[in-house]
């Protein structure tokens, strides 16, 4: 659950705002279901989300009541006759939007995972209204003057270091939102934000439709040669669920696409699935997103100019660890050359395999994963299909719990009887090393209609010690394919690693131990937030986790050590592809937002810029512009997709701290990571946080070693 400050920083709502009068909404008499949306949560564990009482028909009225409640509290702060203090201004703002935060969580989960029926229309209608609400708050001149007064008197007021940082954060965020602009500029910013909010919503909804309404259907099982029996069975179940019994259906999601491309022998079938996936949002139909992209970029550029920044990228990175687009680009360019060289080498070897098999075609993008697996087998005697039978969802989830216990002392206990938003969702209570309640963890693992693709962590309630001790409630969300009745869900190697990654975000939220909610958990700089999640990926491949939890779904035997050894030996294999696929997206994101206000044709821009960069033609962007939710469904990762690479530089260096000592389960290193990173949220500058853990600034040589680019 995010505070006002957090939402303004991270782009979970429109980011730039200012100066209209606060107004009251017409009173609404709450019905029982509406009351459930706005009321403090009740029940065990300090209260839980009342999913069983949530009705989408109440969302608009709930937001109206929640915004009215926030307005009342904020107006009281702005008009307080007492001199501004940290307590009557900053701390008061920390508690001013609690009703709104509850409503936002309950509706937001529907907007991301239950986007069916009336929900998309409600989301679209609310987007500009919520934008206006945020504009209204930060346009409050008297409120900003009080924040400014607290910030400017922070030293003589005797504030703690944490309080000084929070005062700085509020002040900086309001200034970055435009608190010093003149009335005409503020009015224009407000209009820009409202239009952007609507465009973001349309973009995200179109992508969801592309992923739920478009799929590849095959009539003949012979078209699926090379796929495992379990995977083929899942495709048959998917077809039957769509009323296509006797056929096979490949969903338009990464979890379905990647294993199909890696193992299907039928080249035409691979191309069909690949084109569906990479053409999301780019089919010149009602779901097309191409027209939205140039408008979003134009509005962002105008907003940045009004705020005094050269481009949106300069605005976006100002508070990041990188600080400037130039520093982010420098890291990407340093990695680009060795990654491209590795791709060229791998492509030549894959082309040789094609020739050896009697093929005369040139390796294409839909062939890359397939021949990469053949090359992996040839070089390392490793076929990742051998690994899948050991990747049981339930067992690996227990492995995540075991690793978290071993590293941080926490334990996980299934909870029955709590309300959930969908029957697929399960809940666990998390306890600390002393056995005391620490958090609740909700897990929503499966793909379904109306659910955004990919994997992510949500925070339903943010940890705080302010106004009493409040424990966090977090969730992880994935899009795995369900198994048949009584059968285990088997994951690909990549999906298993992603599950550990997202659980790292959850741990970041659950292990938070700060006073103020807007500084808790994952509320950190965008290019730092991926650091804890990437660290958690490393625990997946430790012998202790694999030997206990990578168990064959039929025999129950652990994954053979010889197979683990081959996985380890091939650890840097295909890093050229993995790196280039990501870097292309990150570079195009940055170039989009450094391009200024000139009109942009997304398809032409993508094609020409990738050519200038020297993008290998056998690879496409991990996220092509027309489906790039990270940067076009909110401001969140806009001009900041590079963050995953920046964080991986931190991660690679940090993991070497474990290896330099007693290995992955070094208690002293784990405790230091918890004390300096996982528990402190945004109470420290992230550079200081990393420095406190590592004892120095990051050394990017570790990143090059991890990816096999530096021997």
Automatic annotation (TrEMBL):
Record-linked Pfam families: Peptidase_M3 (PF01432)
Superkingdom of the organism of origin: Bacteria
Example of a GO MF term: carboxypeptidase activity
Cofactor note: Binds 1 zinc ion.
Entry-linked CDD domains: M3A_DCP (cd06456)
Cofactor(s) this protein cannot do without: Zn(2+)
Biological process (GO), any one: proteolysis
Keywords: Hydrolase, Metal-binding, Metalloprotease, Protease, Signal, Zinc
Coiled coil: none
Domain Peptidase M3A/M3B catalytic: 260-708
Signal peptide: 1-19
Gene Ontology, cellular component aspect: cytosol
The family this protein is said to belong to: Belongs to the peptidase M3 family.
Protein name: Peptidase M3
Species whose genome carries this gene: Mesoterricola sediminis
